[in-house]
Amino acid sequence: MPSSSGPSRLTSLHSRPPLRYAVYFLSLLGLAASVLAMLFESAWGWAALPFGLLAALGTYDRYQRRHTVSRNYPILAHFRYFLESIGPEIRQYFIQSDTEQTPYSREQRSLVYQRAKNVLDKKAFGSVQDMYAEGYEWISPSLKPTRIDSHDFRITIGKDCAKPYSASIFNISAMSFGSLSANAITALNAGAKRGRFYHDTGEGAISPYHRQGGDLVWEIGSGYFGCRNEDGTFSEERFVEGATLEQVKMIEIKLSQGAKPGHGGILPAAKVTPEIATTRGVPVGKDVISPYSHSAFTTPLEMMGFIGRLRELSGGKPVGIKLTIGHPWEWFGLVKAMLETSQRPDFIIVDGGEGGTGAAPLEFINRLGMPLTEALLLVHNTLVGAGLRDKIHIGAAGKIVSAFDIARTIALGADWCNAARGYMFALGCIQAMTCHTDRCPSGVATQDKRRGKKLDVPDKTQRVFHFHDNTLKALAEMLAAAGLKDTSELGPEHILRRVSKTEIRSFASLFPFLEPDELLHSVPEHAVFREYWQAAQPDTFHPPVSIQELRATKLR
């Protein structure tokens, strides 16, 4: 446990001139020394010139508002920009291709940067993709393209609620204040307001920086931040205060997160500033530990009751859940609880195992949680087979940045998509992968105010808006080329995958799909349903007896 002096030590460190300003300070010192030397020998003017140019550049970097990295790294940032400018050539000849995704390829990041800056996002000469490689995917074009006049694709969530919500089909996924900087949250919400799409708060509660007028989806995790009692349990009174805000359009109960399912997470004491403590409803300067599971419910049936209660307390706003698929019997138990009680979420967010995070153990990031494709198919198929798909909408998140990513995900069964890292790129994230160190060079994922305040809110607000707008414009063009008029028309038959050098299959033939109400009358041959559907129970998350028996022996 960090000592009580943690925050003071952090403050002391932040009060000293940062090392990253060293080159700038040396240039100022060199300029002053050169000018002083000129009083005795005019030849020193040749030294004053380069020092003066560097000092002028550093001063400009510190006070310009366009580039956050330059403000945090005066003069030094230009070395990065130079190396970045020749990066494609270096990779082309020596290192890697532009399509290598680690975790996002240069091609993907460049696409976001160009669309966010509202500059030309077209490419010349041809694709750099290997179209004959196994796994290559594409959408089928039509010989009779359509015309789409509006790219503002929307879907109404919670049609049976007193306050349904018309959502964009591309929104900002959950990222908390505390994980992202104040300026980053402000720019995201202001961009969402301009583009009329929603901004998920993350489980860190609704901060003052979320209150820029953009639509909010309030995510409630196991820590009940923003709606908790002193002992960490759920507070109905505090929930009502937040849920009835006009800006809050939907409530999302976070069961698990793609990059770290089953991991509660810790916000270190040094990061728990008075501002964050007030926002989350926790003590200042103490570790904030999110429990591994919710205390407001312990069974699927209890969860359905909790969902209904939140809908009532919020005044009839849509209430949903977010989860990463793990044990199939647990998911099936949730669906059976919906059938038994006739209570159900208005929406489900499927978070793929490839999702991002500010910090998580490597094993969680790499090896825990079902990837989005399989998870989305399982959720969609189960709801179709249980006769619930027309009553529950599905959102999906997991490395979605392009129009094709959106089209592919909707074709697999989603109604809309969310993105986190894509919008971070729009804010200026350079994929430094230092989110957990509090040293984010772009001022996005940090609580160091000296770094975060360099992120220019008006400029990044425009970038967030343009990324959303230009991505949906590209989606409209892609749909029109495929002969479609709306995202609701997308289906698995529209996406093709190369499964070998000589074989191509559509998603419709590649993946099994259940018939409506099939689970109500029979058990499909699909292995997961055959093994676990009948054994799943609505009154417990415990594994079936057969699984418990396997856990008790190595004699399999």
UniProtKB/TrEMBL annotation:
Entry keyword Transmembrane: yes
InterPro entries (alphabetical): Aldolase_TIM, GltB, Glu_synthdom, YerD
TM stretches of this protein: 21-40
Coiled-coil residues: none
Record key words, sorted: Membrane, Transmembrane, Transmembrane helix
Domain Glutamate synthase: 167-484
Family of this protein: Belongs to the glutamate synthase family.
PANTHER family: ARCHAEAL-TYPE GLUTAMATE SYNTHASE [NADPH]
Name of the protein in its database record: FMN-binding glutamate synthase family protein
The organism's taxonomic lineage, starting at the top: Bacteria, Pseudomonadati, Pseudomonadota, Gammaproteobacteria, Oceanospirillales
